[in-house]
Amino acid sequence: MGLDSLLVSRDPQVIDVLRPTLAKLSVDVEVCRGARSGNEILSSEKFDAVIVDCDDLQGGLSVLESLRKGPSNKNSVTFAILNGSTTTRKAFELGANFVLQKPISPTNAMRCFGAALSFMVRERRRYFRHPIELPIMIVFAQGQELKAATTNIGEGGMAIQVMGKLPKTAVSKVIFTLPGASLATESKVDLAWADGSGRAGLRFLEMSQSSKENLEHWLAQHIKI
User: Fold this and answer.
1) 134 and 26 in one domain?
2) Is-contact 105 91, C-beta < 8 A?
């Protein structure tokens, strides 16, 4: 499983240069040739990187600007392709992390995307969720305890399933043991969402450094990039 990127451009030279460059870095490329369709894709799909032709695609700048306002890709690594109309400063102000100037050469493209690769990997790990059924103990603010199970887990939290409905009392912490671990992990959490049928999401708020490192290491063993 490689990294995923969306290229919003209709420039053949840009597409011809970036496709093989990104392929060498194990980054899959989906090409979208219109700003409107680009916005539609970005509203519903998650990408590790988004590349926007800002000056030579009508509405390109609006794609870059709206990207940071949407829930799906507001943290994606974003590249602005410029051709003299938009300044580098303006591109950064609109949310770009990296800027490429036309004409784009294979050498410059490889240098730019090679430098950004670690940020793209970090973004993938941030939102990655590993599907796993794991017994957990939820502790509520008033001391009640409830057994449940995970359906997936990631660096930022976990999705869970409980029998019946969750108590309305605020969630305080969660305790669980990762497969292969000798010690339990404990983290302060809050309720991110609940659908009323026993399914919910818990967001990690505070975890010891050792537990955090153990979780990150365990997740890294299950994500292939």
Assistant:
1) no
2) no
Query: Residue 220, class by beta-carbon neighbours within 10 Å (0-12 exposed, 13-18 middle, 19+ buried)?
Result: middle
Q: How far is CA 33 from the centre of its chain?
A: 23
Give CA–CA dist 9/32, Å, rounded: 6
Going from the C-alpha of 162 to that of each of 137, 146, 148, 200, the distances in angstroms are: 10, 8, 5, 8
H helix or E strand, kind and range, residue 160 = strand 157-161
Other C-beta atoms closer than 10 Å to the C-beta of 93 total: 10
| Structural domain boundaries, residue 25 | 3-127
Bridge-based pairing state of the strands 49-53 and 77-82: parallel
Do residue 12 and residue 100 come from a single domain? yes
Number of folded domains that form the chain: 2
Q: pLDDT by residue (tens digit) across 160-218? A: 999 877 888 889 999 999 999 999 999 999 998 888 788 999 999 999 999 999 998 89
Examine the domain organization and report whether 159 and 211 are in the same domain: yes
- Return the exposure string of 110-142: e unless at least 16 CB atoms fall within 10 Å of the residue's CB, then b: bebbeebbeebbebbbeebbeeeebebebbbee
Please state whether 204 falls in left (phi above 0), alpha (psi between -120 and 50) or beta: beta
